[in-house]
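Thread amino acids onto this structure.
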């Protein structure tokens, strides 16, 4: 009776998996999320090992090519990425026209759309062409994100530097100062942890769009839209808004009680797949603690711990990656509304790996629904 005319009483219809919770919909070789062992593997490698020993560029290469690069491959890849970091005048001009009332995610979404619309390769969906588009988006997103943050601060664009690695250059373009090693490292760790997470909502969106044989840019634009929401990537900003509302650690428990009494979702907590804690949180929390020391902001860590403890006591719900990532980006000096675009800059690697995987083994994604509207009826004859 699925997808047929005529209402089906819920108790007689097929089982509905609301939100597709717990439903496997395809295979993937890109990453494995295992809530039982609380582990996350990118192409077989534990994400914690990657965060400890390789750069974000190497992780991007791994996600796209399936293997870590050797020295020659990495040098070639870095040269290619660094060559694409600049932003065309046309993209800057269109960004300039977007009102400052627009959220930075709308700016990123629009910029990717413009890049896609100006790329003569857009309709070419060969793996080579898609890899090329993915590398160009990966290289340009730091310019897009920092251009927007700086125009909101009434500051000039900072040109990318090809003598710096991805994360050092990102921070250079954001703040116009040579970043310190500790900050670069913490930022790189955040990029690695955000890069990929199997069939999350934005990646699934990208795969749905790809499944219609649409192009890579369209799939990335759709994924950005899905990531924007606070139940997904938008949560890293929402965490910081909550911290701002709470103020200090001693106010956390009362704030939480009030929020829960008003049935508010506490952003940065809970996860669809992990029910015993997010595999990435310990590594990101270490990075946060290093930034707390670096910027001498123990008060922020105290607030972090106070809210986490109160949430554990009241609901037994644990933090997800957005919880430590939000305050880390705050300490580095990013504006809160820029946090989710930072997530985009990282996740574009995972999205595009999935887009290529979907394209290589495609089936149109089109589930069924069960109709529960009015019974068949007829338009009254007039006159
Ligand atoms: C990188 C990422 O995208 S990670 C996710 C980032 N998102 C957030 O941090 C937003 C806050 N968290 C949430 O809204 C949810 O935990 C989600 C959307 C992430 C997962 O949702 P689901 O898998 O659908 O879990 P669900 O909503 O069924 O939660 C089960 C119960 O825990 C409650 N719950 C889950 N998370 C939270 C939360 N953050 N605050 C308050 N209650 C929560 C739900 O209200 C529900 O309670 P109920 O059974 O009494 O109705
Ligand atoms: O997997 C999910 O549902 C959300 C998430 O943690 C991510 O996309 O990183």
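Threaded sequence (383 positions):
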């Amino acid at each position: 009776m699925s997808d047929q005319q005529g209402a089906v009483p819920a108790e007689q219809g097929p089982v509905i998996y609301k939100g597709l919770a717990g439903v496997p919909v395809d295979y993937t070789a890109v990453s494995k999320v295992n809530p039982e062992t609380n582990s996350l593997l990118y192409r077989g490698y534990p994400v914690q090992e990657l965060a400890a020993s390789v750069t974000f560029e190497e992780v991007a290469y791994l996600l796209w090519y399936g293997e870590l690069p050797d020295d020659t491959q990495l040098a070639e890849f870095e040269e290619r990425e660094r060559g694409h970091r600049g932003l065309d005048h046309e993209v800057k001009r269109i960004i300039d026209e977007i009102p400052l009332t627009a959220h930075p995610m709308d700016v990123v979404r629009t910029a990717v759309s413009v890049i896609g619309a100006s790329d003569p390769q857009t309709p070419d969906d060969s793996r080579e062409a898609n890899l090329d588009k993915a590398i160009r988006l990966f290289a340009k997103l730091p310019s897009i994100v920092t251009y927007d943050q700086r125009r909101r601060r009434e500051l000039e664009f900072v040109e990318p530097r090809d003598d710096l690695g991805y994360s050092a250059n990102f921070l250079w373009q954001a703040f116009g100062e040579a970043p310190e090693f500790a900050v670069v490292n913490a930022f790189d760790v955040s990029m690695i942890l955000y890069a990929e997470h199997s069939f999350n909502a934005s990646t699934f969106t990208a795969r749905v769009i790809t499944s219609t044989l649409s192009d890579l840019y369209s799939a990335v634009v759709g994924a950005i839209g899905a990531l924007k929401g606070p139940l997904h990537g938008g949560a890293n900003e929402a965490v910081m808004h909550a911290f701002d509302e709470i103020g200090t650690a001693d106010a956390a428990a009362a704030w939480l009680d009030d929020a829960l009494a008003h049935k508010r979702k506490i952003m940065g907590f809970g996860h669809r797949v992990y029910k015993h804690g997010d595999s990435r949180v310990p590594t990101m929390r270490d990075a946060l603690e290093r930034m707390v020391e670096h910027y001498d902001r123990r008060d922020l860590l105290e607030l972090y711990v106070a809210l986490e403890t109160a949430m554990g006591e009241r609901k037994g719900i644990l933090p997800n990656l957005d919880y430590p990532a939000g305050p880390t980006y705050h300490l580095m000096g990013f504006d809160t509304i820029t946090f989710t675009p930072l997530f985009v800059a990282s996740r574009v690697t995972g999205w595009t790996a999935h887009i290529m995987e979907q394209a290589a083994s495609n089936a149109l994604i089109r589930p069924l629904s069960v109709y529960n509207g009015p019974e068949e009826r007829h338009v009254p004859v007039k006159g």
